[in-house]
Amino acid sequence: MSALHDIAETLVAGKRGLLAADESDSTIKKRFDSVSLESNEENRRLYRELLFSTPGIEEYVSGIILFDETIRQRTHAGIPFPEFLSQRGIIPGIKVDKGTVELTNFPNEKVTEGLDGLAARLTEYKSLGAKFAKWRAVITIGENMPTQACIDSNCYLLARYAALCQAQEVVPIVEPEVLMDGNHPIEKCREVTYTTLKTLFSELSKYKIDFSGLLLKPNMVLPGKEFGSKATPEVVAEHTVKILAEVVPDEVPGVVFLSGGQSPEEATLNLQQINAYSQMKWRLTFSYSRAIQEPVLHAWAGKKENQEEAQKVFLKRAKLASLASVGQYNPSMETAA
What we know:
Layout: H1 2-11, E1 17-21, H2 25-33, H3 41-52, E2 61-66, H4 68-71, H5 81-87, E3 91-95, E4 100-103, E5 106-112, H6 118-127, E6 132-139, H7 148-167, E7 171-178, H8 186-206, E8 215-216, H9 233-247, E9 254-257, H10 264-277, E10 283-288, H11 290-300, H12 307-324
Parallel strand pairs: 1-2, 1-10, 2-3, 3-6, 6-7, 7-8, 9-10
Antiparallel strand pairs: 4-5
């Protein structure tokens, strides 16, 4: 298992974090729609190449999570994306879940699909260059939700996925996302996040997962988007760090936070405060998608003449997230030249 440990450690080493560029077809269509850009394969390829070829990005990004389509695509020069990233010192990864469906008998709750045939897909993805994988589960807070049945089902699937990954010497990232949707207070998010992570690590233990060859990708503890007031970064940090200290085993090399609908500035400031709150046993860094990409996509909008400016925006957002991951970010940097 030392190879797994080495990859996991490399992904969270220094001041780097992850870029999640694994949007499904439906998700990236919504994002392209926001800039009036057609979501066809070539435009998606062009956009991913813009991100992957940004000069200097390897200083701040250790790994990139790819989608099934993306891991099979190539640069304009014909180099497969995983090979291109590896040449830059960036580790290629792959999203392997197949999205969520309704959990039977539990209205408005979701369970993630994709376990069937996963071993064979992991073999193929590894041959294409992937060294780590990601599986996302979603937990919804609402009236009489989440149920323990929903939490149990999703954590069982995360553990089975992790076992299949480690059998192939692919590092699993386990992502149990407690969604921001709703009007609940931060205390409710803390309660649900605690229960979810406690259940998750119990299941991972049951399936004999090597914690030293795994990364956790959780939500930060936040109030619901429709709740009357936002929590300060200090409060977010306190709730988040205390839960991690209670439930995450020491052997886990790192925690890579999802941004979960936060703005780029919010996600960066909250990560900064989490790292400033106290010295933890593990690296606490980022695995952001929209919180890094949203301003990049708007700067580019599918126009070749905007590529250089869009790459500058991407480099800046990645640098600021990197600084936050080591407690060196200041909001004044947002407007600095």
